[in-house]
Amino acid sequence: MKLTGKCHKFGNDVNTDYIISGRHKFKTLDMKELAKYVMEDLDPDFYSKVNAGDFIVAGTNFGCGSSREQAPLAIINANIGAVVAKSFARIFYRNCINTGLPLIECDTDQINAGDELEINLDEGTLFNKTTGKVISIAPLPPVMLKILTEGGLVEHFKKHGTFNFD
Amino acid sequence: MGKTIAEKILSNKSGQDVKANDIVIADLDFVMGQDGTSPLAIKAFENMQAKRVFDPERIAMVIDHSSPSPLQGVSELHRQMRVFAQQQKINFYDIGDGVCHQLVPEQGHVVPGDLVIGADSHTCTYGAINALSTGVGSTDLAAGIISGKLWFKVPETFKFIINGKLGEGVFSKDLILYLIGDVTADGATYMAAEYTGEAINDLSVEARFTISNMAIEMGAKCGLMEADDKTIAWVREHSKKDFTPVSADTDAVYAKIKEYDVSSLEPQIAQPHTVDNVTGISKIGDVPIHQGVIGTCTNGRMEDLRIAARILKGRRINKDTRLIVAASSRQIMLQAMREGLMEIFMEAGAAIVTPGCGPCVGTHNGVPSDGENVISTANRNFKGRMGNNKAFIYLGSPATVAASVLTGQITDPRQFLV
User: Fold this and answer.
1) What domains appear along chain A, each with residue ranges and CATH number?
2) Is B119 in the A-facing interface, judged by CB distances under 8 Å?
3) What's the pLDDT score for residue A67?
Protein backbone atom coordinates (compact mmCIF):
# COMPACT_ATOMS: atom_id res chain seq x y z
CA MET A 1 0.00 0.00 0.00
CA LYS A 2 1.61 3.24 -1.20
CA LEU A 3 0.37 6.71 -0.24
CA THR A 4 1.51 10.08 -1.53
CA GLY A 5 0.56 13.61 -0.54
CA LYS A 6 1.53 16.86 1.11
CA CYS A 7 2.17 17.45 4.82
CA HIS A 8 -0.13 19.59 6.97
CA LYS A 9 1.78 20.04 10.22
CA PHE A 10 0.38 20.29 13.77
CA GLY A 11 1.91 20.19 17.26
CA ASN A 12 1.66 17.88 20.29
CA ASP A 13 -1.55 16.79 22.09
CA VAL A 14 -3.99 17.47 19.23
CA ASN A 15 -7.18 16.37 21.00
CA THR A 16 -10.40 15.02 19.51
CA ASP A 17 -12.23 18.28 20.32
CA TYR A 18 -9.78 20.01 17.94
CA ILE A 19 -10.18 17.29 15.32
CA ILE A 20 -13.97 17.64 15.41
CA SER A 21 -15.61 19.84 18.02
CA GLY A 22 -18.42 18.54 20.24
CA ARG A 23 -20.58 21.46 19.06
CA HIS A 24 -20.69 19.86 15.60
CA LYS A 25 -20.39 16.13 16.19
CA PHE A 26 -23.54 15.50 18.17
CA LYS A 27 -25.77 16.94 15.44
CA THR A 28 -25.46 14.50 12.58
CA LEU A 29 -24.11 11.20 11.29
CA ASP A 30 -23.31 12.84 7.92
CA MET A 31 -19.52 12.57 7.93
CA LYS A 32 -19.14 14.58 4.68
CA GLU A 33 -20.80 17.45 6.53
CA LEU A 34 -18.67 16.99 9.67
CA ALA A 35 -15.51 16.82 7.55
CA LYS A 36 -15.88 20.54 6.73
CA TYR A 37 -15.11 21.34 10.39
CA VAL A 38 -12.02 19.13 10.81
CA MET A 39 -9.27 20.96 12.77
CA GLU A 40 -11.43 24.10 12.69
CA ASP A 41 -10.34 25.37 16.13
CA LEU A 42 -6.63 25.08 15.17
CA ASP A 43 -6.90 26.23 11.54
CA PRO A 44 -10.28 27.57 10.34
CA ASP A 45 -9.30 27.13 6.65
CA PHE A 46 -7.94 23.59 7.01
CA TYR A 47 -10.67 21.78 5.08
CA SER A 48 -10.32 24.00 2.00
CA LYS A 49 -6.50 23.60 1.99
CA VAL A 50 -6.51 19.79 1.76
CA ASN A 51 -5.92 18.02 -1.54
CA ALA A 52 -7.09 14.41 -1.71
CA GLY A 53 -4.47 12.10 -0.19
CA ASP A 54 -2.67 14.74 1.90
CA PHE A 55 -1.33 13.85 5.35
CA ILE A 56 -1.89 15.26 8.81
CA VAL A 57 1.53 15.24 10.52
CA ALA A 58 1.80 15.93 14.25
CA GLY A 59 3.88 15.46 17.40
CA THR A 60 3.11 13.30 20.44
CA ASN A 61 -0.25 12.07 21.81
CA PHE A 62 -2.31 12.77 18.67
CA GLY A 63 -6.04 12.15 19.18
CA CYS A 64 -6.11 12.45 22.97
CA GLY A 65 -9.43 13.18 24.66
CA SER A 66 -12.82 11.77 23.88
CA SER A 67 -13.66 8.42 22.30
CA ARG A 68 -15.59 9.99 19.42
CA GLU A 69 -15.15 7.92 16.28
CA GLN A 70 -16.31 10.98 14.37
CA ALA A 71 -12.66 12.10 14.71
CA PRO A 72 -11.10 9.52 12.35
CA LEU A 73 -14.27 9.42 10.20
CA ALA A 74 -14.22 13.18 9.69
CA ILE A 75 -10.49 12.98 8.82
CA ILE A 76 -11.18 10.21 6.28
CA ASN A 77 -14.04 12.25 4.79
CA ALA A 78 -11.83 15.34 4.54
CA ASN A 79 -9.80 13.15 2.11
CA ILE A 80 -6.74 12.82 4.34
CA GLY A 81 -4.73 9.74 3.31
CA ALA A 82 -3.08 8.98 6.67
CA VAL A 83 -2.12 10.53 10.00
CA VAL A 84 1.58 10.58 10.82
CA ALA A 85 2.62 11.34 14.42
CA LYS A 86 5.29 10.60 17.01
CA SER A 87 2.65 8.86 19.15
CA PHE A 88 -1.12 8.41 19.35
CA ALA A 89 -3.67 8.33 22.17
CA ARG A 90 -4.96 4.77 22.52
CA ILE A 91 -8.70 5.13 21.87
CA PHE A 92 -8.02 7.21 18.74
CA TYR A 93 -5.51 4.56 17.66
CA ARG A 94 -8.12 1.78 17.96
CA ASN A 95 -10.73 3.89 16.18
CA CYS A 96 -8.41 4.49 13.22
CA ILE A 97 -7.69 0.78 12.83
CA ASN A 98 -11.42 -0.01 13.15
CA THR A 99 -12.48 2.59 10.57
CA GLY A 100 -9.61 1.94 8.15
CA LEU A 101 -7.59 5.16 8.52
CA PRO A 102 -3.86 4.35 8.20
CA LEU A 103 -1.69 5.52 11.13
CA ILE A 104 2.04 6.01 10.94
CA GLU A 105 4.19 6.29 14.06
CA CYS A 106 7.61 7.85 13.39
CA ASP A 107 9.91 10.77 14.13
CA THR A 108 8.03 13.72 12.65
CA ASP A 109 10.68 16.35 13.48
CA GLN A 110 12.15 15.61 10.05
CA ILE A 111 8.94 16.63 8.27
CA ASN A 112 7.98 20.25 7.62
CA ALA A 113 4.70 21.85 6.60
CA GLY A 114 4.22 21.52 2.85
CA ASP A 115 6.73 18.66 2.37
CA GLU A 116 5.76 16.08 -0.25
CA LEU A 117 5.71 12.59 1.29
CA GLU A 118 5.54 9.04 -0.02
CA ILE A 119 4.56 6.32 2.47
CA ASN A 120 5.06 2.63 1.78
CA LEU A 121 3.12 0.63 4.40
CA ASP A 122 4.39 -2.76 3.16
CA GLU A 123 8.05 -1.77 3.34
CA GLY A 124 7.56 0.34 6.50
CA THR A 125 9.15 3.48 5.11
CA LEU A 126 8.29 7.12 4.73
CA PHE A 127 10.17 9.00 1.99
CA ASN A 128 10.29 12.78 2.34
CA LYS A 129 10.52 13.81 -1.33
CA THR A 130 11.16 17.46 -0.43
CA THR A 131 14.20 16.79 1.78
CA GLY A 132 15.25 13.48 0.21
CA LYS A 133 15.26 11.73 3.62
CA VAL A 134 13.91 8.23 4.33
CA ILE A 135 12.32 7.80 7.77
CA SER A 136 11.60 4.35 9.21
CA ILE A 137 8.12 3.74 10.62
CA ALA A 138 6.95 1.47 13.47
CA PRO A 139 5.24 -1.71 12.16
CA LEU A 140 1.63 -2.53 13.16
CA PRO A 141 1.00 -5.66 15.30
CA PRO A 142 -0.62 -8.51 13.24
CA VAL A 143 -4.12 -8.23 14.83
CA MET A 144 -4.38 -4.55 13.92
CA LEU A 145 -2.86 -5.07 10.49
CA LYS A 146 -5.47 -7.76 9.74
CA ILE A 147 -8.39 -5.47 10.69
CA LEU A 148 -6.91 -2.54 8.75
CA THR A 149 -6.19 -4.56 5.60
CA GLU A 150 -9.67 -6.13 5.67
CA GLY A 151 -11.00 -2.55 5.50
CA GLY A 152 -11.83 -2.02 9.18
CA LEU A 153 -13.77 -3.82 11.91
CA VAL A 154 -17.16 -3.60 10.15
CA GLU A 155 -15.75 -5.55 7.20
CA HIS A 156 -14.01 -7.98 9.57
CA PHE A 157 -17.34 -8.75 11.31
CA LYS A 158 -19.21 -8.95 8.01
CA LYS A 159 -16.72 -11.54 6.83
CA HIS A 160 -16.28 -13.58 10.04
CA GLY A 161 -19.36 -12.73 12.17
CA THR A 162 -17.07 -12.30 15.20
CA PHE A 163 -13.38 -11.75 15.97
CA ASN A 164 -11.20 -14.09 13.95
CA PHE A 165 -7.42 -13.85 14.01
CA ASP A 166 -6.53 -17.48 13.26
CA MET B 1 6.27 -13.75 38.22
CA GLY B 2 3.47 -11.75 39.86
CA LYS B 3 0.71 -9.92 38.07
CA THR B 4 -0.81 -6.46 38.16
CA ILE B 5 -4.59 -5.96 38.52
CA ALA B 6 -4.91 -5.40 34.76
CA GLU B 7 -2.95 -8.57 33.92
CA LYS B 8 -5.10 -10.62 36.32
CA ILE B 9 -8.45 -9.35 35.04
CA LEU B 10 -7.44 -9.84 31.39
CA SER B 11 -6.12 -13.34 32.24
CA ASN B 12 -9.44 -14.22 33.92
CA LYS B 13 -11.52 -12.88 31.06
CA SER B 14 -9.47 -14.36 28.20
CA GLY B 15 -8.92 -17.75 29.85
CA GLN B 16 -5.19 -17.43 29.24
CA ASP B 17 -2.19 -16.63 31.40
CA VAL B 18 -1.33 -13.22 30.00
CA LYS B 19 1.23 -10.53 30.74
CA ALA B 20 1.76 -6.92 29.60
CA ASN B 21 1.91 -6.37 25.82
CA ASP B 22 0.15 -9.66 24.93
CA ILE B 23 -2.84 -9.21 22.63
CA VAL B 24 -5.95 -11.14 23.71
CA ILE B 25 -9.62 -11.54 22.90
CA ALA B 26 -11.51 -11.31 26.18
CA ASP B 27 -15.12 -11.70 27.40
CA LEU B 28 -16.92 -8.53 28.40
CA ASP B 29 -19.02 -8.27 31.57
CA PHE B 30 -20.72 -5.04 30.55
CA VAL B 31 -20.92 -2.73 27.53
CA MET B 32 -22.14 0.88 27.56
CA GLY B 33 -22.82 3.57 24.96
CA GLN B 34 -24.01 7.20 25.20
CA ASP B 35 -25.84 9.44 22.75
CA GLY B 36 -22.68 10.88 21.18
CA THR B 37 -21.42 7.41 20.25
CA SER B 38 -24.35 4.95 20.18
CA PRO B 39 -25.99 6.17 16.93
CA LEU B 40 -22.77 5.42 14.99
CA ALA B 41 -22.54 2.06 16.77
CA ILE B 42 -26.11 1.19 15.75
CA LYS B 43 -25.15 2.02 12.16
CA ALA B 44 -22.06 -0.21 12.47
CA PHE B 45 -24.23 -2.98 14.04
CA GLU B 46 -26.44 -2.87 10.95
CA ASN B 47 -23.48 -2.68 8.57
CA MET B 48 -21.99 -5.74 10.29
CA GLN B 49 -25.26 -7.49 9.37
CA ALA B 50 -25.96 -8.44 12.99
CA LYS B 51 -29.47 -9.22 14.18
CA ARG B 52 -29.28 -9.66 17.97
CA VAL B 53 -27.06 -8.40 20.76
CA PHE B 54 -25.10 -11.02 22.73
CA ASP B 55 -26.91 -10.40 26.05
CA PRO B 56 -29.39 -7.53 26.62
CA GLU B 57 -28.78 -7.59 30.40
CA ARG B 58 -25.11 -6.75 29.90
CA ILE B 59 -25.68 -3.71 27.69
CA ALA B 60 -26.84 -0.18 28.48
CA MET B 61 -27.39 2.89 26.36
CA VAL B 62 -27.65 6.30 28.01
CA ILE B 63 -28.91 9.65 26.71
CA ASP B 64 -26.80 12.17 28.61
CA HIS B 65 -24.61 14.21 26.27
CA SER B 66 -27.43 16.30 24.79
CA SER B 67 -30.20 15.73 27.27
CA PRO B 68 -32.95 16.76 26.74
CA SER B 69 -32.36 17.28 23.02
CA PRO B 70 -31.49 20.87 22.09
CA LEU B 71 -31.72 20.32 18.31
CA GLN B 72 -33.84 18.53 15.73
CA GLY B 73 -30.85 16.54 14.41
CA VAL B 74 -30.07 15.29 17.91
CA SER B 75 -33.72 14.33 18.45
CA GLU B 76 -33.52 12.02 15.45
CA LEU B 77 -30.37 10.33 16.81
CA HIS B 78 -32.09 9.89 20.18
CA ARG B 79 -35.07 8.33 18.45
CA GLN B 80 -32.79 5.79 16.75
CA MET B 81 -31.37 4.84 20.16
CA ARG B 82 -34.83 4.42 21.70
CA VAL B 83 -35.95 2.19 18.83
CA PHE B 84 -32.80 0.07 19.03
CA ALA B 85 -33.08 -0.29 22.81
CA GLN B 86 -36.69 -1.37 22.54
CA GLN B 87 -35.99 -3.89 19.77
CA GLN B 88 -33.01 -5.41 21.54
CA LYS B 89 -34.47 -5.13 25.09
CA ILE B 90 -31.24 -3.68 26.50
CA ASN B 91 -30.97 -1.42 29.57
CA PHE B 92 -31.87 2.10 28.54
CA TYR B 93 -31.55 5.38 30.43
CA ASP B 94 -33.40 8.33 28.94
CA ILE B 95 -33.22 12.10 29.53
CA GLY B 96 -32.97 13.12 33.17
CA ASP B 97 -31.75 9.73 34.42
CA GLY B 98 -28.19 10.96 34.66
CA VAL B 99 -24.64 10.74 33.36
CA CYS B 100 -23.59 7.30 32.12
CA HIS B 101 -20.57 7.02 34.43
CA GLN B 102 -22.71 7.65 37.47
CA LEU B 103 -25.53 5.35 36.32
CA VAL B 104 -23.43 2.29 35.43
CA PRO B 105 -22.04 1.77 38.95
CA GLU B 106 -25.03 3.33 40.78
CA GLN B 107 -27.50 0.96 39.07
CA GLY B 108 -25.32 -2.01 39.99
CA HIS B 109 -24.21 -3.00 36.48
CA VAL B 110 -20.52 -3.23 37.36
CA VAL B 111 -18.76 -5.03 40.22
CA PRO B 112 -15.12 -5.66 41.23
CA GLY B 113 -13.12 -7.85 38.85
CA ASP B 114 -15.30 -7.02 35.85
CA LEU B 115 -14.08 -6.20 32.35
CA VAL B 116 -16.12 -3.34 30.88
CA ILE B 117 -16.03 -1.25 27.73
CA GLY B 118 -17.91 1.97 27.14
CA ALA B 119 -18.04 4.19 24.10
CA ASP B 120 -16.98 7.19 26.13
CA SER B 121 -13.44 8.03 27.14
CA HIS B 122 -14.28 8.46 30.82
CA THR B 123 -15.40 4.82 31.12
CA CYS B 124 -12.19 4.41 33.15
CA THR B 125 -14.27 5.74 36.11
CA TYR B 126 -15.26 2.23 37.34
CA GLY B 127 -11.62 1.41 38.07
CA ALA B 128 -12.41 2.97 41.45
CA ILE B 129 -14.46 -0.15 42.25
CA ASN B 130 -11.80 -2.52 40.95
CA ALA B 131 -13.24 -3.05 37.45
CA LEU B 132 -11.03 -2.87 34.37
CA SER B 133 -13.16 -0.46 32.40
CA THR B 134 -11.98 1.43 29.38
CA GLY B 135 -13.21 3.75 26.66
CA VAL B 136 -13.61 2.64 23.06
CA GLY B 137 -15.14 4.02 19.88
CA SER B 138 -18.45 3.23 18.20
CA THR B 139 -17.22 0.37 16.00
CA ASP B 140 -15.65 -1.38 19.00
CA LEU B 141 -18.95 -0.81 20.82
CA ALA B 142 -20.83 -2.49 17.95
CA ALA B 143 -18.41 -5.45 17.95
CA GLY B 144 -18.83 -5.69 21.75
CA ILE B 145 -22.62 -5.75 21.77
CA ILE B 146 -22.68 -8.34 18.98
CA SER B 147 -20.03 -10.75 20.25
CA GLY B 148 -19.63 -9.94 23.96
CA LYS B 149 -15.91 -9.83 23.27
CA LEU B 150 -13.19 -7.39 22.30
CA TRP B 151 -9.49 -7.55 21.50
CA PHE B 152 -7.17 -5.91 24.03
CA LYS B 153 -3.50 -5.23 24.27
CA VAL B 154 -2.67 -6.09 27.89
CA PRO B 155 -1.40 -2.78 29.27
CA GLU B 156 1.75 -2.22 31.26
CA THR B 157 0.97 -0.63 34.62
CA PHE B 158 2.01 2.70 36.13
CA LYS B 159 1.66 2.49 39.91
CA PHE B 160 0.95 5.65 41.90
CA ILE B 161 1.59 5.32 45.64
CA ILE B 162 -0.11 8.21 47.40
CA ASN B 163 1.01 8.68 51.01
CA GLY B 164 -0.07 11.21 53.62
CA LYS B 165 -3.42 12.76 54.48
CA LEU B 166 -5.23 15.40 52.45
CA GLY B 167 -5.75 18.61 54.41
CA GLU B 168 -9.09 20.33 55.12
CA GLY B 169 -10.47 21.89 51.92
CA VAL B 170 -8.31 19.66 49.70
CA PHE B 171 -10.09 16.87 47.82
CA SER B 172 -9.57 13.92 45.52
CA LYS B 173 -10.03 16.33 42.57
CA ASP B 174 -7.04 18.34 43.73
CA LEU B 175 -5.04 15.14 44.11
CA ILE B 176 -5.74 13.84 40.60
CA LEU B 177 -5.14 17.28 39.02
CA TYR B 178 -1.79 17.35 40.81
CA LEU B 179 -0.85 13.90 39.48
CA ILE B 180 -1.86 14.82 35.91
CA GLY B 181 0.15 18.05 36.13
CA ASP B 182 3.13 16.00 37.29
CA VAL B 183 3.08 13.17 34.72
CA THR B 184 1.43 15.25 31.89
CA ALA B 185 -1.33 14.43 29.41
CA ASP B 186 0.53 11.47 27.87
CA GLY B 187 2.42 10.35 30.99
CA ALA B 188 0.54 7.03 31.15
CA THR B 189 -0.47 6.52 27.49
CA TYR B 190 -1.29 2.86 26.65
CA MET B 191 -0.81 1.99 30.35
CA ALA B 192 -3.09 1.00 33.21
CA ALA B 193 -2.80 3.33 36.20
CA GLU B 194 -2.97 1.69 39.65
CA TYR B 195 -3.67 4.10 42.52
CA THR B 196 -2.77 2.93 46.00
CA GLY B 197 -1.55 4.17 49.38
CA GLU B 198 -2.84 5.75 52.56
CA ALA B 199 -4.42 8.81 50.91
CA ILE B 200 -6.43 6.61 48.54
CA ASN B 201 -7.54 4.30 51.38
CA ASP B 202 -8.80 7.33 53.33
CA LEU B 203 -11.08 8.47 50.48
CA SER B 204 -14.74 7.50 50.19
CA VAL B 205 -15.76 5.46 47.15
CA GLU B 206 -17.43 8.58 45.69
CA ALA B 207 -14.19 10.54 45.98
CA ARG B 208 -12.25 7.66 44.42
CA PHE B 209 -14.48 7.78 41.31
CA THR B 210 -13.15 11.30 40.66
CA ILE B 211 -9.59 9.97 40.50
CA SER B 212 -10.29 6.99 38.25
CA ASN B 213 -12.52 9.19 36.05
CA MET B 214 -9.53 11.35 35.15
CA ALA B 215 -7.04 8.51 34.44
CA ILE B 216 -7.67 9.12 30.72
CA GLU B 217 -6.39 12.69 31.14
CA MET B 218 -2.92 11.21 31.72
CA GLY B 219 -3.47 8.96 28.70
CA ALA B 220 -4.20 5.80 30.72
CA LYS B 221 -6.36 2.92 29.51
CA CYS B 222 -7.88 2.47 32.97
CA GLY B 223 -7.46 3.82 36.52
CA LEU B 224 -7.54 0.85 38.87
CA MET B 225 -7.84 0.60 42.63
CA GLU B 226 -7.98 -2.44 44.88
CA ALA B 227 -11.29 -3.27 46.58
CA ASP B 228 -11.26 -2.65 50.32
CA ASP B 229 -14.08 -2.85 52.91
CA LYS B 230 -15.48 0.50 51.72
CA THR B 231 -15.60 -0.72 48.11
CA ILE B 232 -17.30 -3.97 49.04
CA ALA B 233 -19.90 -2.22 51.21
CA TRP B 234 -20.60 0.33 48.44
CA VAL B 235 -20.97 -2.31 45.74
CA ARG B 236 -23.22 -4.54 47.92
CA GLU B 237 -25.45 -1.51 48.48
CA HIS B 238 -25.80 -0.94 44.71
CA SER B 239 -25.61 -4.38 43.09
CA LYS B 240 -26.94 -7.89 43.55
CA LYS B 241 -24.23 -9.44 41.36
CA ASP B 242 -21.63 -11.81 42.83
CA PHE B 243 -18.02 -10.76 42.56
CA THR B 244 -14.45 -11.61 43.41
CA PRO B 245 -12.14 -8.62 43.95
CA VAL B 246 -8.77 -8.69 42.21
CA SER B 247 -5.59 -7.40 43.82
CA ALA B 248 -2.08 -7.04 42.49
CA ASP B 249 0.57 -9.56 43.51
CA THR B 250 3.32 -8.19 45.74
CA ASP B 251 5.88 -9.20 43.10
CA ALA B 252 3.91 -7.74 40.18
CA VAL B 253 6.03 -6.04 37.53
CA TYR B 254 5.38 -2.33 36.93
CA ALA B 255 6.52 -0.21 34.00
CA LYS B 256 6.74 2.78 36.35
CA ILE B 257 6.22 3.50 40.05
CA LYS B 258 5.91 7.01 41.50
CA GLU B 259 5.45 7.85 45.15
CA TYR B 260 3.92 11.05 46.50
CA ASP B 261 3.17 12.63 49.88
CA VAL B 262 0.08 14.82 49.63
CA SER B 263 -0.10 16.06 53.25
CA SER B 264 0.85 19.61 52.29
CA LEU B 265 -1.02 19.69 48.96
CA GLU B 266 -3.05 22.87 48.41
CA PRO B 267 -6.15 23.13 46.16
CA GLN B 268 -5.12 22.71 42.51
CA ILE B 269 -6.32 24.41 39.33
CA ALA B 270 -5.94 23.24 35.72
CA GLN B 271 -5.56 26.35 33.56
CA PRO B 272 -6.58 26.76 29.90
CA HIS B 273 -6.29 24.94 27.53
CA THR B 274 -4.92 21.58 28.75
CA VAL B 275 -5.70 19.44 31.79
CA ASP B 276 -1.99 19.06 32.62
CA ASN B 277 -1.47 22.84 32.86
CA VAL B 278 -1.88 22.62 36.64
CA THR B 279 -0.90 25.07 39.37
CA GLY B 280 -1.43 25.42 43.11
CA ILE B 281 -4.19 27.89 43.94
CA SER B 282 -1.77 30.21 45.77
CA LYS B 283 0.00 30.88 42.46
CA ILE B 284 -3.09 31.49 40.32
CA GLY B 285 -3.23 35.29 40.72
CA ASP B 286 -6.35 37.34 39.97
CA VAL B 287 -8.59 35.44 37.58
CA PRO B 288 -12.11 36.88 37.24
CA ILE B 289 -14.81 34.22 36.81
CA HIS B 290 -17.94 34.71 34.68
CA GLN B 291 -19.44 31.25 35.08
CA GLY B 292 -19.06 28.31 37.43
CA VAL B 293 -20.17 24.72 36.76
CA ILE B 294 -20.74 22.11 39.47
CA GLY B 295 -21.59 18.64 38.20
CA THR B 296 -20.40 16.17 35.49
CA CYS B 297 -19.19 12.57 35.74
CA THR B 298 -16.14 13.85 37.62
CA ASN B 299 -17.77 15.79 40.47
CA GLY B 300 -21.58 15.78 40.58
CA ARG B 301 -22.08 13.24 43.40
CA MET B 302 -23.58 13.75 46.86
CA GLU B 303 -20.30 14.63 48.58
CA ASP B 304 -19.56 17.16 45.86
CA LEU B 305 -22.96 18.82 46.18
CA ARG B 306 -22.75 18.77 49.99
CA ILE B 307 -19.39 20.54 50.16
CA ALA B 308 -20.49 23.13 47.59
CA ALA B 309 -23.73 23.73 49.51
CA ARG B 310 -21.81 24.09 52.77
CA ILE B 311 -19.86 26.98 51.21
CA LEU B 312 -22.84 28.57 49.43
CA LYS B 313 -25.34 28.27 52.29
CA GLY B 314 -26.80 31.65 53.26
CA ARG B 315 -24.64 33.48 50.71
CA ARG B 316 -25.24 34.98 47.23
CA ILE B 317 -22.94 34.43 44.28
CA ASN B 318 -21.10 37.46 42.87
CA LYS B 319 -23.37 39.73 40.79
CA ASP B 320 -21.14 39.37 37.69
CA THR B 321 -20.89 35.58 37.95
CA ARG B 322 -23.29 32.79 37.02
CA LEU B 323 -23.49 29.30 38.51
CA ILE B 324 -24.82 26.16 36.83
CA VAL B 325 -25.46 23.02 38.91
CA ALA B 326 -26.18 19.58 37.42
CA ALA B 327 -26.36 16.54 39.68
CA SER B 328 -24.82 13.41 38.13
CA SER B 329 -28.06 11.42 38.29
CA ARG B 330 -31.74 11.55 39.09
CA GLN B 331 -31.11 9.66 42.35
CA ILE B 332 -28.49 12.18 43.40
CA MET B 333 -30.71 15.11 42.48
CA LEU B 334 -33.56 13.60 44.50
CA GLN B 335 -31.32 13.05 47.51
CA ALA B 336 -29.93 16.60 47.19
CA MET B 337 -33.51 17.92 47.16
CA ARG B 338 -34.38 15.90 50.27
CA GLU B 339 -31.34 17.31 52.05
CA GLY B 340 -32.27 20.86 51.06
CA LEU B 341 -29.14 21.35 48.92
CA MET B 342 -31.03 22.41 45.80
CA GLU B 343 -32.75 25.09 47.86
CA ILE B 344 -29.36 26.37 49.03
CA PHE B 345 -28.06 26.49 45.44
CA MET B 346 -31.13 28.28 44.12
CA GLU B 347 -31.17 30.81 46.95
CA ALA B 348 -27.49 31.48 46.26
CA GLY B 349 -28.41 32.34 42.66
CA ALA B 350 -27.58 29.10 40.81
CA ALA B 351 -29.35 27.78 37.71
CA ILE B 352 -30.17 24.08 38.09
CA VAL B 353 -30.11 21.99 34.91
CA THR B 354 -31.01 18.39 34.02
CA PRO B 355 -28.58 15.69 35.20
CA GLY B 356 -26.36 15.24 32.13
CA CYS B 357 -23.19 16.26 30.32
CA GLY B 358 -24.30 19.42 28.44
CA PRO B 359 -22.34 22.14 30.25
CA CYS B 360 -19.11 20.09 30.18
CA VAL B 361 -19.17 18.98 26.57
CA GLY B 362 -20.54 22.13 24.96
CA THR B 363 -23.75 20.76 23.51
CA HIS B 364 -26.06 23.07 25.49
CA ASN B 365 -26.88 24.25 29.05
CA GLY B 366 -24.30 26.97 29.46
CA VAL B 367 -22.07 27.74 26.47
CA PRO B 368 -19.82 30.67 27.53
CA SER B 369 -19.38 33.78 25.38
CA ASP B 370 -16.15 35.05 23.80
CA GLY B 371 -13.40 35.94 26.26
CA GLU B 372 -15.24 34.60 29.30
CA ASN B 373 -13.56 32.62 32.07
CA VAL B 374 -15.30 29.53 33.39
CA ILE B 375 -14.39 27.46 36.43
CA SER B 376 -15.75 23.93 36.30
CA THR B 377 -15.64 20.67 38.24
CA ALA B 378 -15.38 18.80 34.91
CA ASN B 379 -12.44 16.77 33.62
CA ARG B 380 -11.50 18.67 30.44
CA ASN B 381 -10.65 22.28 29.64
CA PHE B 382 -9.67 21.98 25.98
CA LYS B 383 -10.14 25.02 23.81
CA GLY B 384 -13.73 24.95 22.54
CA ARG B 385 -14.69 22.16 24.95
CA MET B 386 -17.71 24.00 26.35
CA GLY B 387 -18.85 25.07 22.89
CA ASN B 388 -16.86 28.29 22.41
CA ASN B 389 -13.21 28.27 21.35
CA LYS B 390 -12.79 31.86 22.54
CA ALA B 391 -13.64 31.04 26.16
CA PHE B 392 -11.18 29.99 28.89
CA ILE B 393 -11.87 26.99 31.13
CA TYR B 394 -10.31 26.37 34.53
CA LEU B 395 -10.83 23.12 36.45
CA GLY B 396 -11.02 22.68 40.21
CA SER B 397 -12.84 20.90 43.03
CA PRO B 398 -16.51 21.59 43.82
CA ALA B 399 -15.38 23.56 46.89
CA THR B 400 -13.07 25.73 44.77
CA VAL B 401 -15.84 26.38 42.23
CA ALA B 402 -18.29 27.32 45.01
CA ALA B 403 -15.79 29.70 46.63
CA SER B 404 -14.91 31.25 43.25
CA VAL B 405 -18.50 32.03 42.23
CA LEU B 406 -19.02 33.77 45.58
CA THR B 407 -16.09 36.14 45.13
CA GLY B 408 -16.19 36.34 41.33
CA GLN B 409 -12.59 35.24 40.99
CA ILE B 410 -10.66 32.00 41.49
CA THR B 411 -10.60 31.59 45.26
CA ASP B 412 -9.09 29.17 47.76
CA PRO B 413 -12.10 27.45 49.37
CA ARG B 414 -10.34 26.95 52.68
CA GLN B 415 -11.26 30.47 53.85
CA PHE B 416 -14.94 29.40 53.72
CA LEU B 417 -14.39 26.13 55.56
CA VAL B 418 -12.93 27.35 58.87
Assistant:
1) 2-138 (3.20.19.10)
2) yes
3) 87
